């Protein structure tokens, strides 16, 4: 995939005025305006500006006015330049991120375009990123920890590049962030490509459960419909096989069955239960149990509330709501 990182871009703002932007690092670009209406190119104005000059009112206005003044004496109405510049910069503001200039110094562009592979070993805080780069005629692998990738500091990258290539280009914070974002995009694209059909089914199932389940703090609501779920935030009920103070969302089996019935080529129940537990979506296997305060048993699936995006702020405090309704009455 293309890195999308470039060192230089040119744009014809008018038939006779072209603007060239070059990444110089540190969140800065060099903007140069050329008059092209005569023989060859004549430089009208050049200076350094923020990379987001098109959004920065001061930078945008400064460049516009400098070029406007420089056009005095040329066979071009300066007001046409002003109108064209404002139209062009407004189009960049309205554009999507991947349609805007993403300018970096040449050495950073070389590292991005020279990226051969990005491998991430394990996951979470223990993840290790191994990036294979072809640069200056050599192909080497550098290794960065999760902490390195999460940091905006450039020292870990510089140390790894020097270790691998006996050379390290000058890289400033903004340039490292752009390079890191590109490597992250590569990894995310790879993850999408390698997602198996089983992964897609599981993801679809979890998304549907998340959208349909209604979490409550009381087990009494389980009789109110299959979408109702009881969240025992500290496992006060003492669910076997689950540690104390572990949050458990009791999701009714009838909801799970309903969701599976609505899916095309739904996974088998046994395989689904195993996958959910292996991947940490559930805290134990489903079972016929009697919730707190209930007289009868029912079949439940025991989800980790966090896996369903449920926080304590999301759960309905049924006791408080009941008290409120009595006062209102």
How would you describe this protein?
With 329 residues, the protein is of the alpha+beta class. It has three domains: 8-99, Enolase-like, domain 1; 106-194; 200-328, no CATH class. Helix content is 38%, strand content 25%. It is built from ten helices and twelve strands. The protein has helices at 57-70, 78-94, 106-113, 146-150, 155-165, 173-194, 197-212, 253-262, 269-278, 318-328, and strands spanning 8-14, 17-25, 28-35, 42-50, 115-121, 128-135, 138-145, 214-216, 228-232, 248-252, 282-289, 298-303. The strands form three sheets. A five-stranded mixed sheet has the order 8-9-10-12-11. The protein has a four-stranded antiparallel sheet with strand order 1-2-3-4. The longest helix is centred in the middle third of the chain and has 22 residues, at 173-194. The N and C termini lie far apart (64 Å). Residues 320-329 have low confidence and may be disordered.
Keyword list:
4-stranded antiparallel β-sheet, 3 domains, Enolase-like, domain 1, 12 strands, 38% helix, 5-stranded mixed β-sheet, alpha+beta, 329 residues, elongated
Report the β-strand fraction as a percent range: 25-35%
Write down the domain tally: 3
Low-pLDDT windows of residues: 320-329
Arithmetic mean of pLDDT: 90
- What is the tally of helical segments? 10
| Number of β-strand runs | 12
Percent helix, as a range, is 25-40%
What value does the Rg take, in angstroms? 29 Å
What sequence of helices (H) and strands (E) makes up the elements? EEEEHHHEEEHHHHEEEHHEEH
Overall, the morphology is: elongated
Class per helix and strand makeup: alpha+beta
**Strand order across the biggest sheet?**
8-9-10-12-11
Please summarize the sheet with the most strands.
Answer: 5 strands, mixed
Measure the end-to-end span.
64 Å
